[in-house]
Amino acid sequence: MRKNLLLLITAVLLSMGNTFALIEDSMVDSSLLWRKNSDCSPTTNSNKIVENKHLTLINVINSWLAYDKNVWEKNFSFKENDEMQLLEICIWNIDQPKIALYKFDRTFDPYRPDIFYGGALWVEYRESFNVLDLEIPEMTSSYVLWAFKQIAEKIVEVSPANHYGLKYLGHGSVVQGLFENKLNIPDSKIFLDYFCTLLGKKIDFLDWNTNCQVGTYENIETYYQYADYVLASDLNRGGKKNTNGDPLECYFNFEHTQKIETFFSPLTSIRQSLVNMVNSEKMYWECLFIGKNSIFENPEMEAISIFDCNKFENLVNATKLNHTLYTGDVLNYVQNNYPEKVDLFYDFRFHYVNNSDFCNWVGIYNGFKKIYLSHPPGEIVPVTEIINLPSSIKEGGHIILKGTVIPDNATNKTIIWAVHQANNTGAFISDGNILHVTKMGEGDLCIKATIVEGYGWFQNYVLYFWIGVIPGVVIDERTVTTAINVYPNPTTGELRVENSKLRIENVDFFDINGRKIFSAFQEKSINISHLPVGTYFMELSTEIGKVVKKVLKE
Questions:
Q1: Both 419 and 454 in a single domain?
Q2: What is the pLDDT of residues 181-206, one digit of tens each?
Q3: 425 within some domain
């Protein structure tokens, strides 16, 4: 069954080709949008007649939790009424990755005592609301794109509406592909273009207001042609820590995810509905910081903007924002260089709330900022994926992090590794790409792989993946590392090994790609004069485990 599914997915992906949308310096002609391409025409068909609602709000969740946990399903207390439907797309980062579309109705109750914490009964109950379940071979942009195109078709079939909103509850960045780069930027544009084609119009709004640092020129430039409105912040979101009092009453009265259904009605325009929703969020901040008498410690600056995407080109063309070397707050740039055009900025960023009247506000922030200087000349061959990544590590051991960058001719291929989620395993990275684990911890490790400008100019490629921890002998590698000293380093040939506590049984040398070069059995002195100039990793096996030293050959 799974083999047939993989063959089907492969066939679909091959039919899609390798066309990528290029991010141009000039503005896109809106009249050219949503042309049906022969390789991505919608295929939805259904004999079932479903009455249009006023709004279908699509919420996307990127879940790293176990499949039987009951967590994200409680994000919104509202699910459905006569005028509005909430659909939820879950990106399941599990052993067999998949992407599922859920249509919960007003009977759905994740707070039932018998399923509140999850379990097998919970899974059976939740999955009864699953209207499309798509397993994919791996969590790469091409497979995610395939799945989201099928889901877009299903959404139009099972939840027709006069208006559509797309929301993401997760992290953000100043330049991003959708859903924490689960879709890279070219594939994000392909998906949104395809969805707009299905709808026959722009998406009414993209709601990024809970994502950090997404209120940037770079993000709006990438996505403005696919939506009428974008909700975003140029600051971090959240970061509050409860210290006293009970914020729940305030939370359920004002926080927008708990009262989402109260903002949208056929009697109120989408524009005004978004304004009301954002105003409620500010009331939530005021309730927490003033009404609750500083209920949170270390409060951070908070702000949300609503952008009218149909006014973006007017602002950019009038202020040469796409050609200026300026970086920073855009309103500040317009006021200083084009004061007569300030009204165009306010037409574009037409609604804005912040907490500057009751929080320490440092710096110039007006809801919209520009990050990079300008588009440099030349093109970058983008990274599409990283394969052959490690999948396991032994408790108390270490591995060399490495992967194969696709395509082989990508302009930038250097991978920067970081521990994203250690789960109490004591994981750390030394010498750039050596991953160490000191104990089993509470679950698998999440590793972040970044290729600077892997997508294009000023657009990083970012991938998160999981590594399982296998039980083994626990070794304090920090202690082992300090017990062995290798010198001189850098060296032109001879390496001396100083070791007073441990017996060294073998020494292996690896190049920066993780390939084994040669082995040595001498404990005190090793000659590497025959090796080319470069960086190598020296793996010393002792009676209690292995330790790796980075060696520079001159």
A1: yes
A2: 899 989 999 999 999 999 999 999 99
A3: yes
